[in-house]
Design goal:
Glutaredoxin, 2 domains, four-stranded mixed sheet, two-stranded antiparallel ribbon
Length: about 160
């Protein structure tokens, strides 16, 4: 079965499969149904680029501007655990109070570093992308492509 749309200059034919939708439409709908969350800082070029890559895949993610709405301690602990990293691995140095707090000092324990990230959310590196399959710090932004390729590909 086909459906045809005609305007003044172009006739477009869309093939409809036996389920009443085109393969492209099905894949696009799957991408729209995919739940992705990004912990985002709009002032960060890496974060903006990662967000753009997600949107270009056809997914509109939940965007959490974590400087305005920081994660709770419990949420931050879950994110760190899901990424399989240590709290120290999530610390951001540039443009933060990292140096003035002396965070290079190995005396700081994981729970203490988490407390400092809660007190100073700018210390949380970004962007963190959460998908049903994986949670990942997407630095560089191209790290998000692996999440999108696997997640938005049509399932057979």
């Amino acid at each position: 079965m086909t459906a045809t749309t005609v305007d003044d200059t172009v006739s477009v034919t869309v093939w409809i499969d036996v389920f009443g939708t085109s393969p492209w439409m099905a894949a696009h709908q799957e991408a729209q149904d995919l739940k992705i969350t990004i912990y985002h800082n709009p002032a960060c070029g890496t974060s903006r680029k990662t967000l753009a890559m997600i949107r270009q895949s056809g997914v509109e993610p939940e965007v959490i501007e974590y400087l305005k709405n920081p994660p709770s301690r419990e949420q931050l602990v879950k994110l760190i655990k899901a990424m399989g990293i240590s709290p120290r691995d999530l610390l951001r140095r540039k443009g933060t109070p990292y140096d003035e707090l002396g965070l290079d000092d190995p005396k700081w324990t994981g729970p203490e570093l988490i407390d400092l990230m809660i007190a100073h959310p700018i210390l949380i590196n970004r962007p963190i992308v959460v998908t049903p399959r994986e949670v990942r710090l997407c630095r560089p932004p191209e790290f998000v492509l692996d999440l999108l390729d696997d997640e938005s590909a049509p399932q057979e």
